[in-house]
TrEMBL record:
Gene3D superfamilies attached to this UniProt entry: NAD(P)-binding Rossmann-like Domain (3.40.50.720), Succinyl-CoA synthetase domains (3.40.50.261)
Protein name: Succinate--CoA ligase [ADP-forming] subunit alpha
Lineage: Bacteria, Pseudomonadati, Bacteroidota, Bacteroidia, Marinilabiliales
Family to which the UniProt record says this protein belongs: Belongs to the succinate/malate CoA ligase alpha subunit family.
Binding locations of CoA: T17, G18, S19, E20, K43, I96, T97, E98
GO molecular function: succinate-CoA ligase (ADP-forming) activity
Active site: H247 (tele-phosphohistidine intermediate)
InterPro entries hit by this protein: Cit_synth/succinyl-CoA_lig_AS, Citrt_syn/SCS-alpha_CS, CoA-bd, CoA_lig_alpha, NAD(P)-bd_dom_sf, SUCC_ACL_C, Succinyl-CoA_synth-like
């Protein structure tokens, strides 16, 4: 079992022939991801990177049995791309695009809520099941096979967590970059729940940041339902109140949005909280020993 993607996932790229789609599709193929084609409207019937190009996602589902899509479509059209993938029956949609208008994402989120589709992102690095399938933009060489799951709002901290875990002599089952926008598909709690139910994951790294309530909700779910150790970190500990920091969703609106408040809630819920991402690996080792 694995979380969201594995070596059998049949992946298509929406925005396949664009510069970003081309570059990252090449990297994904090199990693060993089972890429079966891509979608660029108007270019259907051609080939790109020795793979078929389709005009629509539904055509890709019909002809190459695609079940995972990764979106490299420009912001103005990305929400439509998400809805198109869900409408075509794609099971996992991973939206890398940054800068999708919030109102567009409200419509897309409402649309897919009635579909049998899991959305990851937008504005995220993607999902990687180590040494099996990389669907996104993460540097694959960092992720070595193991039994620790990672869920993170931050792309760079996803890579840092993986590096720490590997250097500690452990490894990664799957890493999910959920994205830092105000409206996203998969929440921290939902990702943690996937890992708790995964037979190939023994422990979880949970990386959050200031703004919103997702980390608190995840922590409370872990307290009630968790069966595996969780190590947590919150970015933005020195951020001033009321200032947006990096991600569109990273803004402190109230006392519970601060890093200190989130860290306190996580500790109360039995999560092993670290002050610095440099301590993730060593803390996970200790948590697993217990």
């Amino acid at each position: 079992m694995s979380v969201l993607v594995n070596k059998d996932s049949k992946v298509i790229i929406q925005g396949f022939t664009g510069s970003e789609g081309t570059f990252h599709a090449s990297q994904m193929i090199e990693y060993g991801t089972h890429v079966v084609g891509g979608v660029t409207p108007g270019k259907g019937g051609t080939e790109h990177l020795n793979l078929p190009v389709f005009n629509t996602v539904s055509e890709a589902v019909e002809k190459v049995k695609a079940d995972v899509s990764v979106i490299f479509v420009p912001p103005a059209f990305a929400a439509d791309a998400i809805m198109e993938a869900a409408d075509a029956g794609i099971g996992v949609v991973i939206a890398i695009t940054e800068g999708i208008p919030t109102n567009d994402m409200v419509h897309a989120k409402n649309y897919i809520d009635g579909k049998d589709t899991i959305l990851v992102g937008p504005n995220c690095p993607g999902v990687i099941t180590a040494e099996e399938s990389k669907v996104g933009i993460m540097p694959g060489f960092i992720f070595k096979k193991g039994r620790v799951g990672v869920v993170s709002k931050s792309g760079t901290l996803t890579y840092e967590a993986a590096d720490q875990i590997v250097k500690a002599g452990l490894g990664i089952s799957t890493a999910i970059g959920i994205g830092g926008d105000p409206i996203i598909g998969t929440t921290t709690k939902e990702a943690v729940e996937l890992f708790m139910n995964d037979d190939e994951t023994d422990a979880v790294i949970m990386i959050g940041e200031i703004g919103g309530t997702m980390e608190a909700e995840a922590a409370r779910w872990v307290k009630e339902n968790g069966t595996k150790p969780v190590v947590g970190f919150i970015a933005g500990q020195t951020a001033p109140k009321g200032r947006r920091m990096g991600h569109a969703g990273a803004i402190v609106g109230g006392k519970d949005d601060t890093a200190a408040a989130k860290m306190a809630i996580m500790r109360e819920c039995g999560i092993h909280v670290v002050e610095s991402p440099a301590d993730l690996g060593a803390t996970m080792l200790k948590a697993l020993e217990k």
